[in-house]
Amino acid sequence: MTVSEVVAAIQAGNSLAGADLSGLDFSNQDLSGADLSGANLSNCNFSGANLSCANIQGANLDGVVLINTNQHGIRIDLNLLRARISSGWSLTGVDLRGLDLSGLDLRNAKLADANMQGCDMEGTDFRGAVLNEANLSFSNVRDADFRGANLKRANLTRADRTGAIIPKWKLKKAFIAGDIAYRS
Predict the structure, then answer these.
(1) 30, 99: one domain
(2) First CA to last CA distance, the chain
(3) Which of 64, 5, 57 is nearest to 31 (CA)?
(4) Domain that residue 168 falls in
(5) For 43-99, what is each residue's pLDDT tens digit?
(6) Is 64 found in the same domain as 37?
């Protein structure tokens, strides 16, 4: 497939799940909402592309270039999440709803504005993570460690925080159950 054929298929609402799109140059293309789950995207260039709300779960991203790529609301799987965090990539706005993230090492992860609603994050290490404006509502953060994490305007409404290590001052501007967690 050519880039123009792929873009036309995406704009028509067609799924490209499992497709071999390796080596294509998608720079500055609008691929928003694309279903690229399980696709071979190795060595693709997505510089300046719009991948917002795309599904890339199970996709092969070896050698992919994502410079200045809009990834807001992108849907990824657990293995890709681990790889991206360990390499220091920003996952701003990523959609992780309902994933089992329990016990993971997410230290220093850049998850600002991420949707983590309903995730199981029991015992997860968030030390130094950037979680401003992240949606953690209805999630399980029992025994999770948030020391040094940025929780500014994070939504913790109805999250189970039993045993979680969250310094009181970190919750100062977090949103919990329709109100600010702690007022100064």
Answers:
(1) no
(2) 58
(3) 5
(4) 76-184
(5) 999 988 999 899 998 898 888 887 778 888 888 877 777 777 766 777 888 888 888
(6) yes
